[in-house]
Amino acid sequence: MARSRRQTRREVSEDEEEDDSRLQPETQGRDYQDDQEEEDAYGEDGDGQGQQLISQLAKKLVRYALSVESNRRAIKRQDVNRVVLGAHTREFKNVFSEAQLQLETVFGMKMVELPKQEKVTGAQKRAAAQKADKPGTSSTNTWILITTLDPRFRVPSILGPPKAPTRKAESEYVGLYSIIIALIYINGGVLPDTKLESHLKKLNAEVNTPIGRTEAVLQRMINDGYLVRSKDSSSGDEQIEYTVGPRGKIEVGEEGVAGVIRKMMGGQDPDIESKIQVTLSLNPKHAEPAITGASQAPKPRGRKRTHQQTEPEEAAEGQEEDEEEDEEDETEA
Amino acid sequence: MDPSYNSTHRALLQAFFAHTTLPTAHLPALLSSIHTAADPDRPTLPADITQPDIDASIASVNAAIAPFDYEIRCVHHQSSMSRADSEATYVIVNCTSDPSTQLATRFNADEVKFVRRVLDLMFDKMNFEGREVCAVRPSEALRVAKVRDSVGGTQIETLNGEGVGGGVASSLKLDQAERVLEELKQEGWLELSEAGFLSLSVRALAELGRWLVEVYNDPEAEEDEWQRIKTCEGCKQIVTIVSFHCERREQQQTTPCYDTG
């Protein structure tokens, strides 16, 4: 208890030395906070220490989240318990909310829960229906880190694609998964592999891409959570299908897809906005933007596949032509 | 927290996370884009951004991220003879990092151990009193792709007292090792000199400096004793291109950066 008080005092004085110019408002704010903390500490023995423990663990969690995200891995509760919390796993909730606060105020980021994997095949749906009765399965306990900055800041001159391994390779990867995710959304949320292959063929990317062999790149997208590959054998023959993965839903989502379409078709088609509306709202169950809807996991998109054959098909065809042009532009440049 | 800390600082911080290193010359354009985004009605031009603006923004960010052991540092390339602000590079540094935590996210365990063997080659085998190379030719680095006791193993264990990250290291295939080196180069951890030597980049030195000193230097050495990792007397940055000190010693009056070696 006494230690924690000394600690906060020392922090204050260090800050004063560091930062004389903005001393006034800051120290006032801090003093108030300190008083509060001290009161708490006096009130109950060990409470101050508990607070300190939580803020320490929260910092560890923030660092963990940043390092995990830099490699597009998800933050899993199990790993957090093991790597960050150690013996204090029952503090998870407190530590998590404190870390969330720190991420938002200092870094302008937050952890968003990944939506549940949608059930594509009949067997998965049946399993899900059985599970649905059980309480406490609503959370995936998996999060990714996203920026909370205003979209105005999310422009290439400020936040370009990360340099991992290089800016160019990263941009190419982002471009490829954005297009594939767009194709899946336009196709009604599910894309059979034969169709994906024919789309990729039109992009001249069915065997190789600028960042490696197509198969390896698709596998990377699956590992990173942009795509999900599943087998559906309900109709007799086995069919491989692609759906949008949890990270894809949050990072790209419908807003991102609309952006891709706008960029590609923009200027050519005055009705583009209404067409985007029609195309994307054909999936009524995920009409809201993915980011805000992330905490309540979107419901499984159990679409009957007969609906897909109409409008989105045309839109997809139109878009492909554009993609081809784009691709050519890139290679020329 | 500083009440003036706002979205512009957060955007600057995220830009650093995305870029990791930014030359001073890029900062006016970056900051002006950020300020324009924050206040679109009053566009800010790169020319409006002064060095004190840059310093103030970075100081605010640093004050906010210090508790998380991150820091934006202003560093100069050790071979650069000028210490002017315009020649500096800003690097975001994870202050408590070592190669295994830094690389563990991108490379598998065997690859990380290979990088450790390359570092040992740089700072142990190729770095002794009177011939402080602190760099390797790519061909020499690839030779440690294969685990051999005579090259690393036994010597390393006595050096660190802990072995190479625990567990038995397996050899890397040559093309795998080549890919690791290539990625490290592309990500700006290693740089290849004109003479064909791989050495640690500004960013790697800023990030791994503390770890290098801990691992390769003898903490109980006398003050004047030869140490593997040397720091500049003037600016406290790590110096690995020791041959420079000969030239610099004669210029001590004009250049602030010279070596203790």
From TrEMBL, chain A:
The chain crosses the membrane at residues 173-191. It comes from the Eukaryota. Residues 34-47, 311-333 have a biased composition (Acidic residues). InterPro entries: MAGE, MAGE_WH1, MAGE_WH2, MHD_dom. Residues 1-50, 281-333 are annotated as: Disordered. SMART domains: MAGE (SM01373). Residues 54-264 form the MAGE domain. It holds the Pfam family MAGE. Keywords: Membrane, Transmembrane, Transmembrane helix. GO terms for cellular component: nucleus. GO terms for biological process: DNA repair. This is MAGE-domain-containing protein. It comes from Microthyrium microscopicum.
UniProtKB/TrEMBL annotation, chain B:
Its EC number is 2.3.2.27. It catalyses: S-ubiquitinyl-[E2 ubiquitin-conjugating enzyme]-L-cysteine + [acceptor protein]-L-lysine = [E2 ubiquitin-conjugating enzyme]-L-cysteine + N(6)-ubiquitinyl-[acceptor protein]-L-lysine. GO terms for cellular component: nucleus; Smc5-Smc6 complex. It is found in: Nucleus. Coiled coil: none annotated. InterPro entries: Nse1, WH-like_DNA-bd_sf. GO terms for molecular function: ubiquitin protein ligase activity; zinc ion binding. The keyword Ribonucleoprotein does not apply. PANTHER family: NON-SMC ELEMENT 1-RELATED, NON-STRUCTURAL MAINTENANCE OF CHROMOSOMES ELEMENT 1 HOMOLOG. Belongs to the NSE1 family. This is Non-structural maintenance of chromosomes element 1 homolog.
